[in-house]
Amino acid sequence: MEFREISDNRRVQRPSIEDEDLESASVGLKGEFSFEEVHVEGGDFSGTTGEGRLTRSVLEAVDLSETVVEPLALADVRLSGCVLSNARWSQVDGRRVEVVGSQLVGWRVEFELAQDIYVGDCRADFASFDFDTVKGLVVFERCRFKESSFTGNLSKVAFIDCDLADADFSAVADARGLDLRESKLVGAKGLLSLRGARVTDDQVLQIAGDLARETGLVVD
């Protein structure tokens, strides 16, 4: 097992993929599918609808924009340089999944289970992320979330060097343990739903005005 080290001695288990065992393929998430140990490089599969499973596989520079997938099981999967803009993925069971360097603008994803998920160096403006059950750790690193929303259980989620300006946390059900200490929070909405989240003294000072307005205080 290989792990991606995070701060405070935390770590995320990386996908278990043997690149030499992968078979080159040109497949998308279309119809009823079940793919194992495939490497998909390039290709336009935008706008397709499907349901199925993807296991021990790599998708690289694949256009999956506006896809609708439900349900979807992902186990040991890496998406690199992909486009998921305006896609809608529901009933997702994700275990050891990495999404890196990808375009996630308007992506709507609902995780029934999120276990060891890493999303790094992605632009995810106007996206929505919903988490039901979270195991292990979910990490967002160096991502932008302008006017994105987060709902459900964020108790085992960490944002590292992310821009959360204008992000909406109003519908978060559980924020105990949510780590926001290394990200930009000024302008974020729904701060009162983040009871139990971890922030720094400096962040508290920066968002004091936002907190005051959410409690109904008139700041002048």
What can you tell me about this protein's structure?
- With 220 residues, the protein is mostly beta strands.
- The protein has one domain: E3 ubiquitin-protein ligase SopA (Pectate Lyase C-like, 3 Solenoid).
- It has two helices and 14 strands; from the N terminus they run ββββββββββββββαα.
- The protein has helices at residues 201-206, 208-214, and strands at residues 3-5, 11-13, 23-25, 31-36, 38-41, 49-60, 68-80, 88-100, 108-120, 128-141, 149-153, 157-163, 172-174, 179-184.
- Strands 3, 4, 5, 6, 7, 8, 9, 10, 11, 12, 13 and 14 form a twelve-stranded parallel sheet that branches.
- It is elongated, with a radius of gyration of 18 Å.
Topology:
Blueprint: E1 3-5, E2 11-13, E3 23-25, E4 31-36, E5 38-41, E6 49-60, E7 68-80, E8 88-100, E9 108-120, E10 128-141, E11 149-153, E12 157-163, E13 172-174, E14 179-184, H1 201-206, H2 208-214
Parallel strand pairs: 3-5, 4-6, 5-6, 6-7, 7-8, 8-9, 9-10, 10-11, 10-12, 11-13, 12-14
Antiparallel strand pairs: 1-2
CATH class wording: Mainly Beta
The CATH homologous superfamily = E3 ubiquitin-protein ligase SopA
Q: Kindly name the structural category.
A: mainly beta
**What helical percentage do the residues reach?**
under 10%
How many separate domains?
Answer: 1
Beta-strand content bin: over 45%
Q: Work out the number of β strands.
A: 14
Q: Tell me about the largest β-sheet.
A: 12 strands, parallel
Instruction: List the quaternary state of the chains.
Output: single chain
The overall pLDDT, averaged over residues, is 94
Low-confidence stretches: none
Shape: elongated
Give the number of helices.
Answer: 2
Q: Which architecture does the CATH hierarchy give at level 2?
A: 3 Solenoid
* End-to-end separation: 55 Å
